[in-house]
Amino acid sequence: MNTYLKANYTIEYIKNWLRANLNDERYEHSLGTADCAKFLAEKYGLDEEKAYFTGLIHDCAKCMPKDETLKILEIIPTEEGEIENPKTHHAPVGAYIAKKEFGISDKEILSAIRWHTIGKLNMSLFEKIIFLADKIETRTRPAEYREPITALLNEENGLDKALLLCYENTIKSLVDRKLTICTATVDIYNELLNKTKKV
């Protein structure tokens, strides 16, 4: 685990930092995402410890003060429409914090944190499982939301089908609330729809 961190940093240090910088529900969500990411990594033959660690810190910037978040967003790249939705700010800022605060240089970890909210086209398998773990962890996500998604995982091309349902839910929610839909969200939905149609 320590291979991803600055010298002398431990997993307990990370958990204590998260406890101090997240509210209780968000900390529970982080633990749940870590557990779910580890499970999915085992299922899909990826590094379980790396997935656990990434899930644990994926929301490290979620509870940062808005003014601090906006300052960081001024100096890092963002996607079209991303700035307009404050709920997505913590993902690019989280990748920045993971690198600066914890000394993480692993590109796969940083990318998975960066894209765990809106996702991106051609996500890697590792990025997909972190994205999905965030949505279906069992500590804070309600069963009525996550169970239809997890039920798809045992089907052929189940991971992409599960991701597609996540995007369907997101788009429906945005439409119902008359909120802007990020262009990337539509593009990723179309990509996943086309992939799952071919199976």
Keywords:
10 helices, Hypothetical protein af1432, 62% helix
Overall description:
The chain is mainly alpha-helical and 199 residues long. The protein has a single domain (2-142), classed as Hypothetical protein af1432 (Orthogonal Bundle). Helices cover 62% and strands 0% of the residues. The chain has 10 helices and no strands. The chain has helices at residues 11-21, 24-43, 48-57, 66-73, 90-102, 107-114, 125-136, 143-150, 158-176, 183-197. Helix 3 packs across helix 6, helix 6 (107-114) packs across helix 7 (125-136) and helix 7 crosses helix 9 (158-176). The N and C termini lie far apart (37 Å).
Report mean pLDDT, rounded to a whole number.
93
| CATH homologous superfamily (4th level) name | Hypothetical protein af1432
Shape: globular
Q: Predict the CATH topology.
A: Hypothetical protein af1432
Structural class of the helix and strand makeup? mainly alpha
Classified by CATH, the class is Mainly Alpha
Number of helices: 10
What percentage of residues falls in helices of 4 or more residues? 55-70%
What portion of residues belong to β-strands? under 5%
N-to-C SSE string, H for helix and E for strand: HHHHHHHHHH
Rg on CA atoms, Å: 16 Å
In terms of per-residue confidence, which ranges show pLDDT below 50 for 5 or more consecutive residues?
none
> How many DSSP-defined strands?
0
* Domains (count): 1
Q: Could you give a short account of the major beta sheet?
A: none
Examine the secondary-structure arrangement and name the CATH architecture: Orthogonal Bundle
Distance between the termini: 37 Å
